[in-house]
Amino acid sequence: MAARLNLVVLGKQGAGKGTQCKRLAETYAIPHVSTGDILRAAVKAGSPLGREVASVMDSGALVSDELVIQLVDERFKEPDAKNGALLDGFPRTLAQAEALEALLGEDGIKLCINLDVPIELVTRRLSARRVCQECGAIYSDSDVEAISGTCANCGGDVIQRNDDKPDAIRKRLESYERDTEPLLAFYEKRGLLVTVDGAESPDDVTAAIKAVVAQRGLA
Ligand code: ADP
Ligand code: ZN
Fold it and tell me: Which of 95, 183, 187, 206 could pair with 193 as two cysteines, CB 3.0-4.6 Å apart?
């Protein structure tokens, strides 16, 4: 059996993690595990978990380590994760990175891809971002779908995420610097970090990531 391909994708909010993970999930036939998507689905469903985290998420703050670690633990037990996973938005604190290491043991993280994008560019991308509430498709504020408010994929409502409003964007980027940036050194120390220029076009970024994965003999 092939070794599990567990890849962590790191980068500021708006660096393009979700877009790249969707593409790579298809290429490598492993699931895209986004803690943000899992939490948003819980909020939308109005589950007890969703009710607990909704206001924290809207403000742009992080939910507790314990809670997301448990979510990821459960997600890894699902059959589609048996060959690995693309982790998007997790880990994003040192405590989460350590918990992930403990969780995966020997069959650990194979690579951490750092999507590097300057802060001015991600701020611009996040303010312009609109999303379909039903299917998660991402649009820019100049797309006809965003202007008309209707998703071209599924007909769902296209809206601005509450945490893509200016105050929340600022808070999220501060949290990235404070809580998540230390993970770069964590993975660097383990020889697992590669940095890719995330300011390039989505196709170029995908190609750069695939090249590194191939170079390392991971797939
Ligand atoms: P972004 O990375 O652009 O902030 P996400 O969709 O990854 O967007 O996450 C949205 C929100 O979900 C975060 O602001 C936070 O409140 C919560 N969240 C997601 N992943 C984590 C995590 N690993 N730890 C703590 N909170 C998380
Ligand atoms: Zn849609």
Answer: 187
Q: Which amino acid is located at 67 in the chain?
A: L
Nearest-CA residue for ligand 1 atom 23 is 90
The finding on whether 169 has its CB within 6 A of some atom of ligand 1 is no
Ligand 1 centroid to Cα of residue 35, in Å, is: 6
- Pick from 126, 65, 127: nearest CA to 96: 65
Q: Is the pTM of this model over 0.90?
A: yes
CATH of 5-215, one of 3.30.420.40, 3.20.20.150, 3.40.50.300, 1.10.1200.10: 3.40.50.300
pLDDT tens, position by position, 38-54: 999 999 999 999 999 99
To the query of whether residue 4 is one of the catalytic residues in this protein, the response is no
From residue 155, alpha-carbon distances to 25, 134, 161 in Å are: 24, 8, 17
Cβ atoms 218, 210 nearer than 8 A: no
Mean of all residue pLDDT scores within the chain: 95
Ligand 1 touching residue 90 (CB < 6 A):
yes
